[in-house]
Specification:
CATH class: Alpha Beta
Number of helices: 3
CATH superfamily: Mog1/PsbP, alpha/beta/alpha sandwich
Helix content: 10-25%
Largest sheet: 8 strands, antiparallel
Strand content: 25-35%
Number of domains: 1
Distance between the termini: 27 Å
CATH architecture: 3-Layer(aba) Sandwich
Low-confidence stretches: 1-22
Order of helices and strands: EHEEEEEHEEEEHE
Shape: globular
Number of strands: 11
CATH topology: Protein Transport Mog1p, Chain A
């Protein structure tokens, strides 16, 4: 495999890619019975949804070839699994612009071996956080447990980009969650940021 990203079939609500080639992962993965997104976290995320907007976030369990991830996505949104990643988008009446797109991926590079992901995430040439120079970054913070990065930026046309990644240098793939929100849906930026940050990709470890 030489392409940058891969994806797999939908299991439960959606599936994150976890297959790879080259050097194998040496991560001490989180046991499935020791991880979940608790009700308090979900309640905190949903509390960030503006009053009157019919968006409710829920926990999703994804399993691909024995590798499992817990993630958070809006309830009742449509989910598709194209050749690359998982696409989640609103249905009519969801209170969000219909051409909005949320993507969740397990990403590898090159031959999908272990990488120095910490260096990769801050590389101005290759990082998934690279954005056009005319955007205004309103948030760029490191994450812990596992290590990660959370970025929010606003484009000149008012679209807000939310990008969250978590990684482990011993893993062959990193977790990536992103969404672009139209200006009309800017009030949902904090909720989607919290949703992406709440994900627990078990293959990344603690």
């Amino acid at each position: 495999m030489t392409h940058r990203r891969t994806s797999s079939t939908l299991i439960a609500a959606f599936t994150l890619v976890a297959s790879g080639c080259g050097l194998t992962s040496t991560v001490d993965e989180i046991p499935i019975n020791e991880a979940s997104i608790d009700e308090a976290t979900l309640a905190a995320i949903n509390a960030l949804v503006p009053t009157g907007v019919p968006v409710e976030f829920e926990e999703i369990i994804a399993d691909d070839d024995g590798k499992i991830a817990y993630a958070v996505a809006p309830d009742l949104w449509k989910i598709e699994t194209p050749d690359v990643g998982v696409e989640i988008f609103p249905i009519p009446g969801s209170g969000v612009e219909l051409d909005t797109l949320m993507t969740i991926e397990a990403v590898c590079v090159g031959v999908c071996g272990r990488e120095d992901w910490s260096e990769y995430m801050y590389n101005d040439d290759f990082s998934p956080f690279n954005l056009p120079t005319d955007v205004t970054v309103t948030r760029d913070e490191p994450l812990a447990g596992p290590v990660g990065r959370s970025l929010v930026a606003e484009r000149v046309d008012g679209i807000s980009d939310v990008i969250v990644a978590r990684w482990n240098d011993e893993a062959t793939h990193f977790f990536l969650c992103r969404i672009a929100l139209k200006p009309e849906d800017a009030g949902l930026v904090d909720a989607f940021t919290a949703a992406c940050e709440a994900a627990i990709p078990l293959w990344v470890g603690r």
